[in-house]
């Protein structure tokens, strides 16, 4: 479980293909030497398990399903990724409850600089439209954000300067894919209401 509060950006040092179509990714960051095997770390919002670590880097593996559902397969050496270690009982939920289970990727379609921040517009598959709620929470690249505006299969998030400076959003451009995780409570509510509708027919 995570909160969507990015702890730091790590750098992709190496990417290796695994037999069968998976991917191994080596990431450098400041806390690598305090990792442990089997630790859960969200990489751009996608929960991964640490398989190896040393003083400067940790390693995670992505199976085919992860590569299909996330943008992990599009990463390149030198790219920066948002990192969050899993929450503990002593951790305050400063964002919102995030599972690290990416639902789908969206596409950045607009990036507008305002006087004090940025507005980023993201397009996503239409079948997920009922999971978007204005002023509700969404996780974009592992960042807990509030939906500022919604329309059909697009939404806009407002990025404050601190978030811009301390996440990988500053490196993004129009057309880039971003990992999206919809609010888990909203997903359960939608599924429950849908089941009631089917049972009552």
Secondary structure: elements and pairs:
Elements: E1 8-17, E2 23-28, E3 40-43, E4 46-53, E5 57-62, H1 64-69, E6 80-85, E7 104-113, E8 118-123, E9 137-140, E10 143-151, E11 154-159, H2 161-166, E12 177-182, H3 184-199
Antiparallel strand pairs: 1-2, 1-6, 2-5, 3-4, 3-6, 4-5, 7-8, 7-12, 8-11, 9-10, 9-12, 10-11
Tell me roughly what share of residues is in helical segments: 10-25%
Distance between the termini: 36 Å
Give the amount of beta strand, in percent.
35-45%
Biggest sheet: strands side by side, in what order?
1-2-5-4-3-6
The shape, in one word, is: globular
State the secondary-structure class.
Answer: mainly beta
Number of strands: 12
Q: What is Rg?
A: 17 Å
- Low-pLDDT parts are none
Count of DSSP helices?
3
Round the mean pLDDT to the nearest integer and report it.
93
Commentary on this structure:
By secondary structure, this protein is mostly beta strands. Helix content is about 15%, strand content about 40%. It contains three helices and twelve strands; from the N terminus they run βββββαββββββαβα. It has helices at about 65-70, 160-165, 185-200, and strands at about 10-15, 25-30, 40-45, 45-55, 55-60, 80-85, 105-115, 120-125, 135-140, 145-150, 155-160, 175-180. It has a six-stranded antiparallel β-barrel with strand order 1-2-5-4-3-6. A hairpin with a 5-residue loop joins β1 and β2. The N and C termini lie far apart (about 35 Å).
Main features:
201 residues; mainly beta; 3 helices; six-stranded antiparallel β-barrel; six-stranded antiparallel barrel; 12 strands; 14% helix
